[in-house]
């Protein structure tokens, strides 16, 4: 019996803490009554063993007391058995109700979880659709940007080529014009060269070097722009690749979600028949339960709960039934042991009845003790009956609770039907989602094919960009070669212009000195010619007067001789005047040729505003003091004159044009 108690305690310890606490009081109570029942079974047997000694002297009341004790013990055992059975039934019904409520709550939780998962799946599908739309837009935008960048790059390259070619042609034409003008100036000017080098040439060289450095910087900036454009194109290709990868990942996630939904659907389909199969098994196990196996029944219930959770009904149910059969066999064996012991004791007492006459007093004492025990048992019976009434009340309450639980189970069944309908609706929604997922897979395949086509276009654009790079490199090489040729031509033209400028400056200085001397002589000749004109006028007047006088006084010979002498003197003076007039005419002709030369030099860029302009000569003829002032100012600032002359020649125009070209290049960049 102690072994059995230990087994029951071990099984009860294997249960959950809540169930052990709730069933602990009932198990201890049942154990206490079972011990009392065993003691009561042993006590009548002892009485039977000792009855032969007492039979000769005992009365009929002893037999009646024994029979009443037996009846009471049987009633007590039956009452205990009924109470324990009812307790077990109450426990089982309470556990069934709790399990039903737990299953209902679990089903509700599972349905809520499935709803949440479906909502999450729908949200993920919507997010994936939005993402695919964004990816489509991004891919289209990338393709558009790539095409636009390619078109812009081609336009820029063509425009740059056209601009550079036009600029080089214009600069070439300007250089050719300047060379022709310089050749004409060199042919017209005298061939006198000096080796004096002025500081302005160094300034010109520095400006040319600055222009060369600026052109190199422009080439470097163009190279950097080309590199940046290639980097941007590579980045766009990388963005397209990452977009395709993200799309593949989204497809994988959708496939995983679809597999998860299928798994949950299969779990939901499996859980409903398993629960239906377990309910009749539960009813059979409840009808086959007994009073001494409450703990084993609790363990069986726990095992069945584990079985319900783990979805393995067959093998574990068989093991539980085998354990229950072992428990019943063990209890029958333990109940059979006291009967065998009592039979052996009766035989021994009959053999020793003749010798135990002297033990009447002891039997009387024992009888009194038995009477006291019977009284105690009656008290216990009363207490048991009171407890029985309480148990009946609790049983009624438990039956009410069971009815309420049954009504709750009915409601739970209704709710399960509703949940099944909702599950069917969810399955339909899931099928719709699967069809949508299939459509999305088709769309993703089309998108992947479009991405592959985009990749092919990107590869084509890469080849085109490589060809454009080669062309740009060739153009850069041609530009460097043309720049070098232009630099060589510029240096040659610069040297020629410097030599021509030096010679022309020397010639201009000598010619300005000659012009000053000629102007002074011309002033003198003009004064002389004016005096001679006055004298000629006077002589003509005198001649006319003398002729008139000779006509009037032809008769006076002496006067005629004097007049003839005067006429001879006047003729000599007239001849001298004519000579001086002829010399002045020659000088005026030479001045006219000089004036034509100065007009020709004024057409040259360096002498358009020089000191020998034809307008200045005319002004000098009318105002000699202005000529002296201008000569003084020119002698005081020769450097300013040279710089102004150089700024007015072809170099100034070339530098201004080159700067404008550089600025245009910067604006285009």
TrEMBL record:
Basic and acidic residues bias: start-end ranges: 1-18, 29-44, 616-629
Keyword Coiled coil listed: yes
Coiled coil: 97-131, 172-225, 367-549
UniProt keyword annotation of Coiled coil present: yes
UniProt cross-references to PANTHER family, sorted A to Z: FILAMENT-LIKE PLANT PROTEIN 1-RELATED, FILAMENT-LIKE PLANT PROTEIN 4
Family note: Belongs to the FPP family.
Protein name: Filament-like plant protein
Low complexity biased stretches: 19-28
Region (Disordered): 1-65, 613-646
Keywords: Coiled coil
